[in-house]
Amino acid sequence: MKKLIVITSALALAALSSMAQGVINANNAGTGVYITINGVKIGTPATAAGYATAGPGAVAINLYAAPDSLHDTVAQLEALTPIFTGFNVSSGIATAQGTVAPNSVFTLPTQAGFDGSVPVDFLFTATATGYPMGVSTIGVVQPITAAQAGTGTAGPHIWGTGDSATGITSLAIVVPEPSTIVLGGLGAAALLAFRRRK
């Protein structure tokens, strides 16, 4: 009977630990790190610069995460299911529009490695209609535990250069130069012509 109680208790503790959640802060407001298109901040500044469809609340954002050392490359992180999907801020303030919504603290999934016990790798992607997808740098931070958050401890920032020197430091959508597009088009036309001759 004692063995059964010990085994049951051990299994219960394991289940609880695997369901524990870490807490992070996705706020990038005020850090000076914004989502950009060819160096132009998204939102009304991008629209004014001629980058249509990249205005306030128009750029789709995905956030990927994995326990550190499990997925070390952009391709590996992008292959995962996003832990957050949203848009850039739709506020009327231009400086805020280049930041990630929800700009708030939130909990990580209830999976092993997301409970605040180990560092976690993060990656953002940004997509504006008609433009290539932008991919951020990979950031690494140590989430706090839900219990720490409950005591008022602030969740670490995963974006920018403020609270974490190893956080995300850039997210840019790079549009190919017209000359690159023209060369690509010529190459495609040459391939089509070559196929027709055969």
Please explain how this structure is put together:
With 198 residues, the protein is α+β, with helices and mostly antiparallel strands. It has one domain (21-185). The chain has helices at residues 2-18, 44-48, 74-78, 94-97, 146-150, 178-197, and strands at 22-25, 35-37, 40-41, 60-67, 84-87, 105-107, 120-127, 134-136, 139-141, 144-145, 171-173. The strands form two sheets. Strands 2, 3, 4, 5, 7, 8, 9 and 11 form an eight-stranded mixed β-sheet that branches. It has a three-stranded antiparallel β-sheet with strand order 6-1-10. The N and C termini lie far apart (81 Å).
Unreliable stretches covering 5 or more consecutive residues: 2-18, 179-183
Shape: globular
The count of DSSP E runs of length 2 or more, i.e. the number of strands, is: 11
Q: Total number of helical segments?
A: 6
Taking all Cα atoms into account, the compactness measure Rg is 22 Å
Please give the oligomerization state of what you see.
single chain
* Proportion of beta-strand residues: 15-25%
Overall pLDDT confidence:
80
Order of helices and strands: HEEEHEHEHEEEEEHEH
Instruction: Give the class from helix and strand content and strand pairing.
Output: alpha+beta
The span between the termini is 81 Å
- Our count of domains comes out at 1
Major sheet attributes: 8 strands, mixed
How much helicity do the residues have? 25-40%
